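Hey, can you fold this one?
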Amino acid sequence: MTGYGQGQQDAGDLRVTVELKTVNNRFADVRFRLPAELAGWEARVRRTVLSRVRRGRVELSVRFERGNAAAGAPALNRELLEAVLAGAQQLRDEHGLKGELDVARIVAIPGLFRAEAPILGGDKEQLEVLDRCLALGLDALDADRLREGQVLATELLDRLRTMQDLTRTMTERAATVPATVRDRLIARLDNLGVELQLDPARVAQEAALLADRCDVTEELVRLEGHLQQAIALVDEPDGQPVGKRLDFLLQEIHRETNTVNSKSSDLELTRVALAMKAEAEKVREQVQNLE
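Sure. Predicted structure:
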């Protein structure tokens, strides 16, 4: 499921922002864009995010901003400067090299100036502020994903109930199959053009055998049961992730529908079964995005 959440907290003149974005994915995957000094926070936040997001790819970023412009001015890297000057003096002393370093050449040294990284008051304070931002961001993300989930649930319920109607249509049509098979058998015998003394009992027996091969009662009963369970998961959630459970039920629904289609000798029953497969495929595509 897709969603966006943001959490912000101020610590003095420093503003910390945690942003979370989710996109559809069959599995749970968390990707980070963190400052280097927060590398140790990654494992901790991964556990927190995965406790709230069970399916989908999450992109998490952290941003620091100072409240005053001067705080963002570049700072002189004194350690690097002293090392460069000491190295130049060493070259002159040990190798007799001539020449002086001027300001233009010194300021051109990569890394001599660096932006001051906004640092919070300390490790403990930093983690507390980050954790509060993460909690706020996750709450906002949950609210956004909930809105999308409600829209998806409405569509899924409509399609699942349409599938229930198709199942009832197949059940009604399947009930006529034994008589249709018997009439078809008698018609074929009559079309032979030979006067036959038909034993009604034997004809009934053959018709029963043919009807048994086409019988889809068990498949339709299981199909109705799977649909009732799927509707209950969407309409009355139990607080647990339903995406993978619905995915499993859709696999079973697809399998039962295939069996009905393969056993059917009735054109109308086959047509309804194909419509059922098409509807099930649409539902399964949506379920892939559901947590």
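The longest helix spans residues 123-175. Let me know if you want another pass with a different chain boundary.
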